[in-house]
Design brief:
Blueprint: H1 2-29, H2 34-55, H3 63-87, H4 93-100, H5 103-115, H6 122-141, H7 144-147, H8 149-174, H9 181-203, H10 214-241, H11 244-247, H12 250-265, H13 272-293
């Protein structure tokens, strides 16, 4: 019973922290270049993971493991995190979180039409329809006439980041390597940090470390310590001590937290149409996830350990 109470507390921590990291990222990119922010965040987060395992006596990755880690770093962190962070400049944190929550839908489509591994049931179809309808509701209300072409760019970048996360998730589920998953994440973070750091140097789109404002450093520390460490540990604990169906609820709570906190701290207004769209999308994602669990060979959609 004590473990279960702690597990529910862990689930709460996961939902709140990963939901608020979207808002934190939005605050961060308003004061410094997005790829520089993502690079520093991944460098610090990756360093923590790698240092922990090296101190425990873990050896360096083999050549074969590095050849696997490099493309995964591009899919899971350079694209999924870096590009998603860049897209936050043009859309609300709530919408970005909601688009990220769509990844089970893209997993289903990729699995069905590329690997032929997923059976499209009536429940899956309804879920896909509601998920896409929800985004259409929001996009219609906050159309180009309201926000301009940069809004479409932000939505497009967020969708691309979500799709690359889905592709990475499928590859991980189908191609296992003999390496601790958390140690692997640390190296992926470090590789992505180096890649995005070199990109910022090449483009000149960066500011000197001593010029980074305190609010951005606060955002980075919060996302590293809160999102990459405490929330991730809480997520693992809740998965171990709660029914998977309950433990996975964080995926539906994250966007709601991002929307609520974004409206409170960043004055990101939510219209009635947007609220309806959000509800439709989350119900659609739930139905698709449920249809996957009912099948014999579902791909486990891997969640963003940082909420993005």
């Amino acid at each position: 019973m004590a473990n279960q109470k702690k597990a529910y507390l862990a689930l709460t921590v996961t939902s709140l922290v990963w939901g608020t990291t979207w808002v934190a990222s939005k605050m961060g990119v308003s004061h410094m270049p997005a790829f520089e922010l993502a690079s520093i965040r991944q460098f610090l987060g990756g360093s923590i993971y790698i240092s922990f395992f090296l101190l425990r006596g873990e050896g360096l990755p083999t050549k074969k493991q590095f050849l696997w880690l490099i493309p995964m770093a591009f899919l899971m962190f350079v694209s999924s995190n870096g590009i998603a962070t860049y897209g936050l400049q043009f859309i609300t944190s709530g919408l970005a979180a909601l688009i990220a929550a769509l990844y089970p839908l893209s997993v289903v489509l990729i699995e069905r039409f590329y690997f032929k591994a997923i059976k499209i049931t009536a429940q899956t179809m309804i879920g896909l329809f509601l998920g896409l309808l929800g985004i259409a509701f929001i996009f219609y209300k906050d159309s180009l006439l309201v926000h301009g072409t940069h809004y479409a760019l932000g939505v497009g970048l967020s969708l691309f980041a979500m799709i690359t996360w889905s592709v990475g998730s499928i590859i991980i589920s189908r191609n296992k390597i003999n390496m601790n998953a958390y140690y692997s994440i640390g190296w992926q973070m470090l590789i992505s940090a180096a890649t995005m750091g070199l990109f910022t140097l090449y483009t000149g789109n960066y500011i000197a470390l001593h010029e980074i404002p305190a609010i951005s450093w606060g955002v980075i520390i919060y996302m590293v310590i809160g999102g990459s460490v405490f929330a991730f540990i809480s997520f693992i604990y809740s998965m171990k001590h709660l029914n998977p169906a309950i433990a996975s609820l964080y995926a539906y709570i994250n966007p709601i937290v991002a929307i609520w906190v974004g409206s409170l701290l960043l004055n990101e207004k939510m219209s009635f149409t947007s609220i309806v769209g959000t509800i439709c999308t989350l119900i659609g994602v739930y139905l698709v996830n449920r249809s996957l669990k009912n099948q014999k060979d579902p791909v486990e959609a891997i969640s963003d350990a940082d909420g993005m």
